[in-house]
Design brief:
By secondary structure, the protein is mainly α. The chain is built from nine helices and two strands. It has a two-stranded antiparallel ribbon. The radius of gyration is 21 Å and the shape is elongated. The N and C termini lie far apart (50 Å).
């Protein structure tokens, strides 16, 4: 549940910030008449994302009746989720400083096109976050092997993100988004490593990869599967009491270099201000 809450919080805040930038631009430009089109585009993006998540679940539980096919499908979705998580984390790290200006420029162009252009622009600005959330949520839940609770945790994360975004927009509350995205980025990288580990496990279950019973470690005697901390490690990062060699290699091979790249200083220094300028 913590992993899905984190997914909802991170993706939800990104989407909320996008929407707040669009709304603030229209209010400041005295174009409140276009706000319904923005909300229509956002609503369509949310509906498509929910439908995509339902399609993933329906495919796995109903369309794919063969065990090996189902395991292979879950493996593919897990690997795709890891790709999207990694891309999203590094994209936000690179684009955070320019995203507001880019969105304002695109919205200004959409206003010149008309109401449909505004709705489409809002839809495209939000739908990427929604589709990513559905895919990552599906993969995380499959890896955790639980039902029910993670959905509420995801919704809780999204509600929290909306509340934070509203406080930032409507009040004087300010949050250090750089620190927030760095901390959540590190946690999501570890979550993604667990999803990748689960994807490799599914590939072994489906028979695509060998070595399912070749264990890298077995600490079930020390890490009791019935304890709360084992459930936390398993649900959050897919750190299990036992793991095959390929699973362990995949977890380490992803987490270590990606964390190193993510935490590496960007090397950018602000340009010096000339002495003649205030």
């Amino acid at each position: 549940m913590l992993a899905t809450y984190l997914i909802g919080l991170r993706e939800g805040l990104e989407a909320t910030l996008v929407v707040s930038i669009l709304v603030a631009f229209l209010v400041k430009a005295d174009r409140k008449d276009r706000l319904p089109q923005v909300w229509a585009g956002v609503g369509a993006a949310v509906a498509l994302s929910v439908g995509f998540g339902a399609l993933l679940s329906y495919t796995s539980t109903t369309l794919l009746r063969d065990y090996d096919q189902r395991e292979l499908f879950e493996a593919i979705t897990s690997i795709l989720a890891v790709v999207f998580v990694t891309w999203m984390i590094f994209w936000m790290r690179r684009a955070a400083r320019s995203i507001a200006g880019d969105l304002r420029g695109k919205l200004a162009d959409a206003l010149a096109v008309g109401s449909i252009g505004v709705a489409v622009m809002a839809f495209l600005s939000v739908v990427r976050e929604g589709l990513e959330t559905s895919l990552i949520f599906y993969s995380a839940v499959q890896g955790a092997g639980v039902d029910g609770g993670p959905l509420y945790a995801l919704l809780g994360g999204i509600v929290t993100a909306v509340a934070i975004g509203w406080l930032m927009y409507a009040t004087a509350v300010r949050i250090n988004l750089g620190v927030f995205f760095t901390v959540t980025g590190v946690l999501l990288i570890l979550v993604a490593a667990g999803i990748l580990k689960y994807g490799v496990h599914d590939l072994q279950e489906s028979g695509v990869l060998d070595g399912l019973n070749t264990l890298a470690y077995d600490v079930s005697g020390t890490l009791d599967p019935s304890t709360w901390y084992t459930a936390l490690l398993t649900g959050m990062f897919n750190v299990t009491p036992t793991a095959s060699v390929l699973e362990a290699v995949a977890w380490v091979a992803y987490a270590v270099p990606v964390l190193a790249l993510f935490l590496r200083p960007s090397g950018r220094t602000p340009a010096p201000v000339p002495a003649s300028q205030p």
